[in-house]
Design goal:
Blueprint (H helix, E strand, L loop, with lengths): L2 E5 L3 H13 L3 E5 L5 H8 L3 E5 L7 H13 L4 E7 L5 H4 L4 E5 L3 H46 L4 H16 L3 E9 L2 E8 L5 H17 L15 E7 L14 E9 L2 E10 L5 H13 L1 H54 L7 H31 L8 E3 L2 H17 L3 E6 L6 E3 L1 H17 L6 E10 H4 L9 E9 L22 H6 L5 H11 L3 E7 L3 E9 L3 H18 L5 E3 L6 H9 L5 E3 L16 E4 L7 H17 L7 E4 L11 H10 L7
The protein binds adenosine-5'-diphosphate.
Adenosine-5'-diphosphate (ADP) binds next to helix 12 and helix 15.
C-alpha cells in the first residue's frame, strides 16, 4: 500500500483527505506539529508528502525547502496544496507537483496516483542506475586486473592480483584459495575481513580439502592432499572481531582454477550479502582469466629451471674439454720431443723405413696438437677468458705470415695462390696473433677443400660499412676486409650459416674424406667478433667459396684514445695516483677521457680554475691534461698560469706532477704530433 504523509493543521482538510485516501486504499499519516515532521518522515518513510501551504509554522518557504532537500535522495515525491491565487515563486519552486484548492476529489486522487506511479518509476530507475554503476565498476576492475595479469610471470603475484580484483569487485567477507605446487607443497591463502577463530580455520581447511576432492575421482586426483602438507597463509583486513563458523553459511561461490587439463587449485568466496548473477559472472571471469597467465608463469619457471640445468651442463662440458685438453697436451709434448730425439739420431741410427714412420707420427702429433689447441681456444673464448692484445697495426703482416707458413701446402697441391692488396690501406686496431689465427683457418680450409691445380685468391680492401651491408657492422664506419676465395668444392646454400656453428661439418663425401673438427670457423667467428667485426661466406657448390671478414678501421679520435689508454696503463703500472684537471667541459675529448678514466682514477673536473690541484690530496703523481678546443695561445697562457701557481704554492709542491698539455682536436696538429707533445711536455715538479 502506498504511503502518503500529510502535513497540515486544518482539521477539515485532514478529515476530508483521510476519507478520500483511505477509500482509495492509500495509507495516510498526518503531522500537525512542525517539530515532528522529519521524525515522521524517518519512521513512516512515505512515498508522497503533501504539504498544506496554509500550515501554521515559523516559515512555510523554509520548511518546504527543508523537506525538499531531505526527500530528494530517496525519490520521495513532494507536493504542495496551494490556493489557486498563490504566486509565491520561492515556495512553488520547492515542489514536484501541486494540488490546487478548492480540491476536487477526482483530480486529487488522480494527481496523487500519478505521483505515486512516478515515485515507483524513479525507484526502478535508481535501482537500474545503481546496478549499472556496479556493473561498470566490475567491468573496470576486470579490465584493470586482466591488464595487470599480462604484466606478470610470478605465480604468487598473479594470485594476489586475482584476489585483489575479486575483493574490489565482490567485497566478500572471506575467501580461501588452495594452490598446488606439488604433493607436499600446498598453500591455503585465507583472505578475510576479520581474523578466524581456531576452529573456523580448521573448518575452512577441511572445506577446501573436500571441495578439491569433490572435483575428481579418487584415482584421477592430480595431487595427493594431506592436512600436514598444507601451509596456511592468513591475510586479515581488520584485527578486531573474530569470525566463526556461521561465516560458512554465508552465500558462497566456488571455482576450480585450471587451464585445459592442467589443474592449479580451487577458490571459494563467502559474502553475507547474497551474490547476484553479475557477481557470479565476474567471479567466473576472474578465476578463468588468471589460469592462462598462471600456466605461462609455470612454464616460465620450468624453462628457467631447464635453462639453469643446461647452463650448468654447458659449463661442465666446457670445463671438461678444457681439463682434458690440458691433460692431453703434456703427454703429447713428451711424444713430440721423443720423436724429435729419434729423428735427430741421438738415440741411434734410423733406417729409411723408420724415418718414414717417424715422419708420419710427427705429422699426426702436429695435427693432434692443432685440434687440442682449437678446443682450448674455444673453451677459453666461451668462458670469456680469452686474452687479447689489441694494438695499432697493419693487417698485411699477419696475412704475409700465414702465406709463408702455408707455402709448402700450397705448393704440394700446385695451387695458384695470389694476394691482392689495395694501396695505402689505413691501420687497424687488432690483436695481430688472433687475426693470424683467423687467416690461417680460412686459407688452410681453402687449401683443404680445393682440388689440386685449383686457385686461391686473397684480397684486402678498404670498404665502408654501408657497402658491406652486414648486420653486425656499423654503416657509418670504415672497415678493412680480407677475402679468401677458392675454386674448391663449395658449400650448399642451406649450409652457409651452419659453417660458423660449433662442431659443424657439412656432410659431403669430400669433407668427410678430408676430416676436421668443425672448430676452425666458429673460432674465427668469435675472434672476429671480439674485434667488433664480422665474418661471412658466399659460395656456389662445385665452383668455390669466398670467405670474407671485416675489421674496423680506427678514426683519428679512436687512435688518440687508444694511445692515451696505453699511457694510462703504464702510469697505473707505475703506481701513479692520477688526477685529471680538465679545462673545458664541452669538448668531445673531455667526455671520452672520463670514459677511459673510470673507477680507480680521481678525476678533478674543472674549468680554468687551477686551484683544483688542491683537491688532489697527499703525495701523488698528477697527469695533467687539457683537452679542449681552445686556441694554442690561450692554452699556453693557461699552462703558464698553472706552472706559476704550482711554483708559488709550496703546499702543492708535495705532488709530483706529470704535466701534459694536449690540444685536441686541432686541424693543424696530427694525432702523432699530439701524442709526441704529450710526452715531451711532461715536466716534473719535485717536492
Ligand atoms: P674443419 O676443421 O672441419 O675444417 P671448420 O670450422 O674450419 O672445421 O669448417 C667447418 C666446415 O665448413 C667444414 O667441415 C666444411 O664442410 C665447410 N668449409 C669450410 N671452409 C670451406 C671451404 N673453403 N670450402 C668448402 N667448404 C668449407
Amino acid at each position: 500500500m502506498a504511503r502518503v504523509l500529510f502535513i497540515s493543521n486544518d482539521e477539515h482538510k485532514i478529515s476530508t483527505l483521510q476519507a478520500i485516501l483511505t477509500k482509495n486504499m492509500l495509507d495516510i499519516e498526518v503531522v500537525c506539529e512542525e517539530g515532528k515532521i522529519f521524525e515522521n518522515i524517518q519512521s513512516f518513510f512515505p512515498d508522497l508528502i503533501l504539504l498544506d501551504t496554509a500550515f501554521e509554522c515559523s516559515d512555510i518557504v523554509v520548511l518546504a525547502k527543508k523537506i525538499k532537500i531531505n526527500t530528494q535522495t530517496d525519490n520521495i515525491i513532494f507536493s504542495l496544496i496551494v490556493n489557486s491565487d498563490c504566486d509565491n515563486q520561492d515556495l512553488l519552486k520547492t515542489a514536484f507537483s501541486y494540488i490546487v484548492e478548492p480540491m476536487n476529489e477526482k483530480i486529487l486522487v488522480s494527481t496523487i496516483m500519478s505521483n505515486i506511479r512516478m515515485k515507483n518509476s524513479l525507484d526502478v530507475l535508481s535501482k537500474n542506475n545503481a546496478d549499472l554503476a556496479k556493473s561498470l565498476y566490475q567491468l573496470d576492475v576486470l579490465y584493470n586486473t586482466s591488464t595487470r595479469f599480462a604484466g606478470s610471470l610470478d605465480r604468487e603475484k598473479l594470485v594476489d592480483i586475482m584476489l585483489e580484483g575479486l575483493e574490489k569487485s565482490l567485497s566478500f567477507n572471506m575467501s580461501y584459495i588452495l594452490l598446488f605446487n606439488s604433493d607436499d607443497d600446498i598453500k591455503l591463502i585465507i583472505n578475510s575481513l576479520h581474523p578466524l577463530s581456531e576452529r573456523f580455520e580448521q573448518a575452512v581447511k577441511l572445506r577446501a580439502m573436500i571441495s578439491y576432492k569433490s572435483l575428481f575421482d579418487k584415482k584421477q586426483m592430480p595431487y595427493a592432499i594431506k592436512p600436514e602438507n598444507i601451509n596456511v597463509e592468513r591475510r586479515i583486513k581488520h584485527p578486531y572481531v573474530e569470525y566463526d563458523l556461521p561465516v560458512l553459511n554465508y552465500d558462497n561461490m566456488f571455482a576450480p582454477i585450471t587451464v585445459g587439463e592442467k589443474f592449479f587449485g580451487v577458490i571459494e568466496v563467502f559474502r553475507e550479502e547474497e551474490f547476484k548473477s553479475e557477481d557470479a559472472t565476474c567471479f567466473q571471469t576472474l578465476s578463468k582469466q588468471v589460469s592462462i597467465p598462471l600456466e605461462t608463469a609455470t612454464l616460465y619457471d620450468e624453462i628457467k629451471q631447464t635453462n639453469t640445468k643446461l647452463e650448468n651442463l654447458e659449463r661442465m662440458k666446457s670445463e671438461f674439454i678444457s681439463i682434458v685438453s690440458h691433460e692431453l697436451r703434456t703427454p703429447l709434448t713428451a711424444i713430440k720431443n721423443s720423436l724429435g730425439i729419434l729423428k735427430g739420431g741421438t738415440a741411434g741410427e734410423t733406417t729409411p723405413v723408420m724415418d718414414k714412420f717417424l715422419g708420419l707420427a710427427e705429422r699426426n702429433v702436429l695435427r693432434l696438437k692443432g685440434i687440442i689447441n682449437d678446443l682450448l681456444d674455444l673453451s677459453k673464448i666461451e668462458a670469456g677468458k680469452m686474452k687479447y692484445t689489441f694494438e695499432r697495426a697493419d693487417i698485411i703482416t699477419p696475412i704475409e705470415a700465414v702465406k709463408n707458413t702455408l707455402e709448402n701446402l700450397i705448393k704440394e697441391k700446385n695451387i695458384n695462390f695470389s694476394l691482392d692488396i689495395e694501396d695505402s690501406l689505413p691501420l687497424v686496431f687488432i690483436d695481430t696473433l688472433r687475426i693470424e689465427q683467423v687467416v690461417t683457418n680460412l686459407i688452410s680450409n681453402a687449401i683443404k677443400f680445393t682440388p689440386e691445380n685449383g686457385e686461391i685468391k686473397v684480397s684486402v680492401k678498404l670498404c665502408s660499412g654501408v657497402e658491406l651491408n652486414q648486420a653486425e657492422l656499423a654503416p657509418d664506419m670504415d672497415y678493412i676486409t680480407v677475402s679468401v676465395k677458392d675454386s674448391g668444392i663449395g658449400i650448399e646454400q642451406e649450409n652457409l650459416e651452419k659453417v660458423f656453428d660449433k662442431f659443424q661439418q657439412i656432410e659431403s663425401s669430400l669433407s668427410r674424406k678430408i676430416g676436421g673438427t668443425g672448430l676452425g670457423l666458429p673460432i674465427a667467428k668469435q675472434l672476429v667478433d671480439a674485434h667488433k667485426g664480422a665474418i661471412w661466406v658466399e659460395s656456389v657448390i662445385n665452383q668455390g667459396s669466398n670467405f670474407t671478414f671485416a675489421v674496423p678501421v680506427l678514426n683519428d679520435f679512436e687512435i688518440f684514445k687508444s694511445d692515451l689508454e696505453k699511457q694510462l696503463v703504464s702510469a697505473k703500472a707505475n703506481n701513479y695516483k692520477l688526477g685529471i684537471v680538465k679545462i673545458s667541459e664541452k669538448t668531445q675529448g673531455a667526455s671520452f677521457i672520463e670514459d677511459i678514466l673510470s673507477g680507480d682514477i680521481s678525476i678533478i673536473r674543472k674549468t680554468t680554475n687551477v686551484k683544483d690541484y688542491a683537491m688532489i690530496e697527499g703525495n701523488c703523481k698528477v697527469l695533467y691534461y687539457t683537452v679542449m678546443q681552445m686556441d694554442r695561445y690561450a692554452l699556453n697562457f693557461v699552462g703558464k698560469k698553472i706552472d706559476g701557481f704550482i711554483n708559488s704554492e709550496p703546499k702543492y709542491k708535495k705532488c709530483d706532477i706529470l704535466f701534459s698539455t694536449a690540444l685536441y682536436p686541432d686541424d693543424e696538429m696530427t694525432v702523432e704530433a699530439l701524442i709526441e707533445r704529450l710526452r715531451t711536455n711532461t715536466i716534473e715538479v719535485k717536492s
